[in-house]
Amino acid sequence: MSVKADLSCSKFQANIFDKSRCQNCFKSRELHLMTNEEFNQAKPIYASWLCLAPEGTEFDNPLQRSRKWQRRFFILYEHGSLQFALDESPSTIPQGTVDLNLCTEVIDAEARTGQKNALCIITPEQEIFIRGDSKEIINGWSEQLTVFPQTNKQNQRKKSKVPSAQSQEQHTSESTVCSIGATETGAVEGSELCCSEQDDGRSTKTWAEASKRTQDMRNPLAADYVDSGKCRK
User: Fold this and answer.
1) Of these four, 7, 61, 115, 194, which has the most CB atoms within 10 Å of its CB?
2) What is the pLDDT of residues 64-107, one digit of tens each?
3) Are 118 and 138 in contact (CB under 8 A)?
4) Per-residue pLDDT reduced to its tens digit, 105-122
């Protein structure tokens, strides 16, 4: 009963832009695969005896509810690894490991299991049922375990905000470019309109002068009259 993260490198190196992520695989520090030396240096933050439900138990089936739970010693490490073994000896190889950095929820499981002081640890791949000898013990574990799904949800929200911000910046940039293009287009159109109006003015004036000359050629008396200011009878 173990959950392993799919990671692309084995040594965490902080990214220069985001110190909480690896520069090689961009995974968070918590989800990063640690070396044996780093794992041995990890500090245990909580530990006690608990009962573990047999893997694959279907509690909706009344016959399986009577299956015997296994007593194991659980140790929670600061990096989010939850291990359980047959005894308390540090040299004992753990029977299983749960990566709480993948945990989505920790909920009360008394009603589902029919057992008092029971919790269910939910990950994308499995559900792990644990039970304490007393309410005090299981409440202590609940306080420790619920921190991880809360932190995981916050990290997911932060991730979702980054693409949104980038999209908004891109949209703003495109809008600015479109605005500049529209301004330049308007200026060109205004210039063309002005030139057109000037051309029309010149054309009208030229046409008027040509029309006057034509009339003068057709009626020379009228031209003389205009030049001399006299009226001929």
Assistant:
1) 115
2) 888 999 999 999 998 899 999 999 998 899 999 999 999 999 99
3) yes
4) 999 999 999 999 999 999
pLDDT at 112: 94
The answer to whether the CB of 72 falls within 8 A of the CB of 125 is no
The side-by-side arrangement of strands in the sheet containing 70-77 is: 96-99, 81-85, 70-77, 44-52, 127-131, 118-122, 105-108
Q: How many residues does the chain have?
A: 233
Rounded CA-CA distance 78/215 in Å is 106
Cβ pair 52, 120 in contact under 8 A: no
CA distance 96 to 82: 8
Backbone angles phi, psi at 118, to 5 degrees: -115, 145
Helix (H, G, I), strand (E, B) or coil at 82: strand
**To which H or E segment does residue 22 belong?**
none
pTM of the model: 0.56
